[in-house]
Specification:
By secondary structure, this protein is of the alpha/beta class. About 35% of the residues lie in helices and about 20% in strands. The chain contains five helices and eight strands, in the order αβαββββββαβαα. It has helices spanning about 10-50, 55-65, 170-175, 210-250, 280-290, and strands spanning about 55, 75-80, 85-90, 100-110, 115-120, 140-150, 165, 185-190. β4 (about 100-110) and β5 form a beta hairpin. The two termini are about 70 Å apart.
Length: about 290
């Protein structure tokens, strides 16, 4: 009953179902990988974001090469802001609003120089392409608590004077003319003494998992449903073939058939009605019956 499955047409259908299901599995696994990355980021935020700050001596190597597991770790720094090296970083949206971030070199009491991102500024109304004003960091020796962040890659686009296209620390160091610890920068959490004016502080990163799990399950379900649909179509084809075979057994020999050999389901022509006899024919028939 299912021998038709070995025909070229149905083998093609099966191949199409397999290709579609394979694509669904690939997309489902991709969503699961995205979910794993999101969960790892959430774990880093939960573990490091609000933990007690560690001294610079314990985090010095992280500023040279940041371990991904140490991202968002709070570090206490002591030193002086180098205001002449202050820059704003372009194209930094926050909560759907366009703006900038303010980065400043920070010379530690131990002699090394790191970069601190002090916060966010909205786009300016007076000077297009730059903020209206940039709050100055506090003068003199400052104790700053920062959260470790990975540097950003170089972008193949320029920026106006006093601005950066991205937080690309090697390029920033070359622009300043003195070395920076280029393995990480610090996102400001607090500073003592505080400045008279501050950029907007950064919000805590989201710890929501998102929709990756539901999307992955949907893709896996689509792959399974493709084979369910193939099986249903094959079952319907087999049932139709069985019905045709039963009709074939019940059809008399010589009955009209379709081009495929199945009995034709067209109704047979109705018998022709006999014409009504005339008066002369009825009289002749009566005389014949009486023997005349």
């Amino acid at each position: 009953m299912y021998r038709f499955l070995f025909s070229s047409k149905w083998l093609g259908y099966l191949l199409l179902a397999a290709v579609f299901a394979s694509a669904c599995v690939f997309l489902g696994r991709w969503q699961m990988d995205r979910r794993a990355e999101t969960l790892a980021e959430i774990n880093r935020v939960v573990t490091n974001y609000s933990a007690a700050p560690i001294p610079f001596a314990d985090a010095k190597e992280q500023f040279r090469r940041l371990d991904p597991a140490m991202e968002w770790t709070q570090v206490e720094l002591r030193g002086t802001y180098l205001v002449e090296g202050q820059r704003v970083v372009r194209n930094r949206p926050l909560n759907g609003q366009p703006g900038y971030e303010v980065v400043v070199p920070f010379r530690l009491t131990t002699g090394e120089t790191v970069v601190i991102d002090r916060g966010w500024l909205p786009i300016g109304n007076r000077n297009p392409g730059s903020p209206d004003s940039v709050p100055a960091p506090p003068p003199g020796e400052v104790t700053a608590v920062v959260r470790l962040k990975h540097p950003e890659p170089e972008l193949q686009r320029g920026a106006p004077e006093g601005q950066l296209a991205s937080i690309d620390l090697p390029a920033y160091s070359a622009q300043l003319g003195y070395p920076l610890l280029a393995g990480a920068y610090g996102q400001l959490a607090s500073e003592t003494p505080p400045a008279a004016e501050m950029p907007f502080p950064f919000p805590k990163p989201s710890t929501e998992e998102g929709t990756h799990l539901s999307y992955s399950l949907q893709w896996f379900a689509f792959g399974v449903l493709m084979f369910v649909g193939f099986g249903y179509a094959a079952r319907q084809q087999a049932r139709n073939a069985a019905i045709d075979a039963e009709d074939d057994d019940e059809t008399p020999e010589g009955a009209p058939r379709t081009a495929s050999g199945a009995p034709s389901r067209r109704p047979l022509p109705a018998p022709k009605k006999r014409k009504k006899a005339t008066s002369e024919e009825e009289e002749d028939a009566l005389l014949d019956a009486q023997g005349y």
